[in-house]
Amino acid sequence: VRLGAGPTGPRTRREWTRRKDAAPREASEAAGGSFARNRRLAASMAPTLQQAYRRRWWMACTAVLENLFFSAVLLGWGSLLIMLKDEGFYSSKCPAENTTITTTTQDGHHKWPTCALQDEMLNLGFTIGSFVLSATTLPLGILMDRFGPRPLRLVGSASFAASCTLMALASRNTEVLSPLIFLALSLNGFGGICLTFTSLTLPNMFGNLRSTFMALMIGSYASSAITFPGIKLIKDAGVTFVVIMFTWSGLACLIFLNCALNWPVEAFPAPEEVNYTKKIKLSGLALDHKVTGDRFYTHVTTVGQRLSQKAPSLEEGDDIFISSQDVRGTSEKLPERSVPFRKSLCAPIFLWSLLTMGLTQLRIIFYMAAMNKMLEFIVLSGQEQKTSEQSEKASESVGFYTSVFGAMQLLCLLTCPLIGYIMDWRIKDCVDAPAEGTGLRDASSWGLLMDGTATKSPRPRYRKIQKLTNAINAFTLTNFLLVGFGITCLINNLHLQFVTFVLHTIVRGFFHSACGSLYAAVFPSNHFGTLTGLQSLISAVFALLQQPLFMAMVGPLQGDPFWVNFGLLLFSLLGFLLPSYLFYYRARLQKEYTANGAGPLKVLNSPEVTA
């Protein structure tokens, strides 16, 4: 048909062809619209950002509990290792003639042999799980910037539930299903870091208390090492390992439900980027010319930012100042003024932090992996040949000290907010920046009374400099504690290990919080997630070295940890290089403020000062 008549007149062959091709496209668009509607329906279950703000205390409290019992529980490896041996994981690797210790299961009917090869296989599983726990923060940071924390938290809770289910199933037939422990520990680490990493966005809703709440989240994450010691006590009370794991998996499903009902689709903006209170009050406002409350708030914020700056047109003496054009131009130019990511990536502060955090992570993870063997070596005084009575005594002592170590992990709930308090010290008394062209000496020397009389005023504290000072104090204290921890590890005294436990717990709670607060103080907020994820990835690579160190300790060194601990003690001294550079960097900033009379923002963004 070449021509067709109708109400709209003749149609050519091309029009008929176009209409024919449009049919499947319309069907595709309809299907796409249906998919989009389904996505909107799924997203409709999530609360809005304003509703989430009203529930922020509930979300923060539940996040602390979820971190405490479901995040980095793998850090309580000492107790989990005992339970896995009791269940017979990789006991088939131990020939009868090479058996060193025999353990009895809960029912008393089975005795599973243990040996060094079994320890190496299980420690390999811990190495993989702890690597996933730290290394996945970089891709998680990228995904969270793209999709927000809600989907990652849902996936994390599901992964944790699957991990517990796999451990329960594998324990039914360990001779065949022991390799499942590698997948279970990997899912455990992945689910735990998803819950931890997403919870670190919640402190954005608490304004000036952000660092304190950040430290509380990290403290609950660090204290989660108490979970497996608690589970071991439940198991010793008579509850089977399978029942415990299935119950734990069911509790992880409650995290999924809590996230689905209370976590919004949008990410939580930083306090510097949005004022939650004003945003909530204006979110329902609608003007007559169809400007929504969010757009009105954005417009008012942009105008306020512009009016707080010097107007270039007024300085140049122009009579005409087009407000709307300048406001839009200012807001569009703001991203161009931001610091490039490669500059933050190559900053000396970030590079020194990679070295410090990597060595500290290796020190902490190795002690967790080798703690049972170290305690056994101290109890047996280094004897290679052990009688059954000595083996039983060593097993009881190791179990007791492992439980004590797990209970001490609750100290992280106190130590992490403490380091957050150190990082927030006198921040409220600080000002953002001096006026342009006013140096530190000029800005702090004189003030004006009400009658106009000049008078001497106290020297103001500037926010960036005070944050650097707090970071120097935090990292210096952490490194001294780390050195003290290394010294106590060298002394073969069983009672002294209580001090070692305390120092280990404090250091583990301090160094993560201090590093996160340092990045938040020095680097742009849009670089924080990526830099933190990259730092965790590099630290995880450092922590992989604990596997060959563990194999060297149980192999050539015959269980003696002295030389490994001594080498790690020497390397831990390199951690003082970061606070030393921060001290130099702070002095350089103060000197440039005074000499050039420039504001801190100009100095920080200058090409000469890279941080």
From TrEMBL:
Region: Disordered, residue numbers: 1-34
Keywords in alphabetical order: Cell membrane, Glycoprotein, Membrane, Transmembrane, Transmembrane helix
Gene3D superfamilies hit by this protein: MFS general substrate transporter like domains
Reactions accelerated catalytically: L-isoleucine(in) = L-isoleucine(out); L-leucine(in) = L-leucine(out); L-phenylalanine(in) = L-phenylalanine(out); L-methionine(in) = L-methionine(out)
Annotated localization: Cell membrane
Superkingdom per UniProt: Eukaryota
TM region(s), chain numbering: 57-83, 121-140, 152-170, 176-200, 212-231, 237-257, 349-370, 398-419, 471-495, 501-522, 534-556, 562-584
GO cellular component, one term: apical plasma membrane
Compositionally biased intervals (Basic and acidic residues): 12-28
Lipid bilayer topology: Multi-pass membrane protein
SUPFAM superfamilies found in the cross-reference section: MFS general substrate transporter
MF terms (GO), sorted A to Z: L-isoleucine transmembrane transporter activity; L-leucine transmembrane transporter activity; L-valine transmembrane transporter activity
A Pfam family it matches: MFS_1
GO biological process: isoleucine transport; L-leucine transport; negative regulation of L-leucine import across plasma membrane
UniProt similarity note: Belongs to the SLC43A transporter (TC 2.A.1.44) family.
Name of protein: Solute carrier family 43 member 1
UniProt source species: Otolemur garnettii
